[in-house]
Write a structure and sequence with these properties.
Elements: H1 2-28, H2 38-45, H3 47-60, H4 65-69, H5 77-98, E1 104-105, H6 112-116, H7 120-131, H8 137-148, H9 152-172, H10 177-197, H11 206-231, H12 235-247, H13 249-253, E2 255-256, H14 259-262, H15 268-285, H16 289-298
Antiparallel strand pairs: 1-2
Helix pairs in contact: 1-3, 1-10, 3-9, 5-12, 5-15, 8-12, 9-10, 9-12, 10-11, 11-12, 11-15
Length: 299
């Protein structure tokens, strides 16, 4: 356990340091987290855990990359589930958000400036991008997410998941499903903290937003870990992660009122949805038949 702990800590420190040296340099050069271009920068940041995992696996730990990081398997039904789950999660989160007093559905996306600090020009760019298919905004966000999630979104998704559900999963899954999910989720959340404290995702409430973000990320980790276990491949959580990122704006852009702490993905509404999902996962992994399945994937 001590050797495993040292390996995990070394990987996390390296990932954390590289990430936040680069993001600090970006901010010092005038970068901001309150513009549409933030999503381009964020996708670059997402590559760092995966690249660090590859370096550690290949040149420091001298282990086989494909087996250690989970770059295995053929497409299966869990890859399909990973693709279709994010739109369902986003719609559920939007629905729960709209139950909060003072909120309303807003297809004009006028709440973006209040929620994310976007300028009027960025809001117009986003409306133009979503409207090019000629679909209503909700359908446009869903279509965009389903197309981009397993394609362009997969790049950033795999970049992160090679670290959290790749290398860390390899080290932690022998300790059990829940320990693996919670420890990797906690490290994943800690990795985000300098960004959220700077206002990333929570421009109006960075301190409280950081607390909410830690809760949401820890609760999101078991779903990604479950998909990783059942699919037998890191590609499945990468698809889920990429598709979630590609559809997330429908929970943020299409609602007015409520604020970033209470509504949208990564908010209290999101935490409520993920709490229910975790309850379902707990029931599934507690079934006696799961012991055999677990042994097969972790042997």
């Amino acid at each position: 356990m001590q050797g495993r702990g040292r390996r995990i800590l070394a990987f996390f420190i390296a990932t954390f340091a590289v990430t936040h040296v680069l993001t600090t340099a970006y901010r010092l050069r005038g970068g901001t987290w309150n513009a549409l271009d933030t999503f381009v920068v964020a996708n670059g940041i997402m590559l760092i855990p995966g690249l660090t995992a590859i370096v550690f696996t290949r040149w420091i730990r001298h282990e086989p990359i494909r087996q250690t990081l989970g770059l295995l398997g053929r497409p299966n039904r869990w890859w399909l589930a990973a693709w279709l789950l994010p739109p369902a999660l986003m719609l559920l989160t939007l629905g729960v958000s709209l139950l909060i007093p003072g909120t309303s559905y807003d297809p004009t996306m006028s709440g973006l400036s209040e929620r994310l600090g976007f300028s009027a020009a960025d809001g117009a760019r986003l409306r133009s991008q979503i409207g090019f298919l000629g679909l209503p905004p909700l359908a446009g966000f869903l279509a965009q997410g389903l197309v981009l999630g397993p394609t362009l979104g997969l790049i950033g998704g795999l970049g992160e998941e090679l670290g959290w559900r790749g290398l860390l999963y390899h080290d932690l899954i022998p300790l059990g499903f829940w320990r693996c999910a919670l420890v990797s989720g906690l490290l994943w959340a800690l990795w985000h903290i300098p960004l959220t404290l700077q206002g990333y995702g929570y421009p109006n409430h960075p301190l409280l937003g950081t607390v909410v973000a830690v809760g949401y990320i820890i609760l999101f980790a078991p779903l990604l870990t479950f998909i990783r276990l059942r699919a037998g491949s890191v590609f499945a959580p990468a698809i889920l992660h990429g598709t979630a990122d590609a559809t997330v704006l429908l929970t943020l852009a299409l609602i007015r009122g409520g604020g970033e702490l209470a509504t949208g993905w990564g908010s209290l509404a999101c935490i409520a949805v993920l709490a229910v999902i975790n309850g379902i996962i707990a029931i599934i992994v507690a079934r006696p038949t799961e012991a055999t399945r677990y042994a097969r994937f972790t042997s």
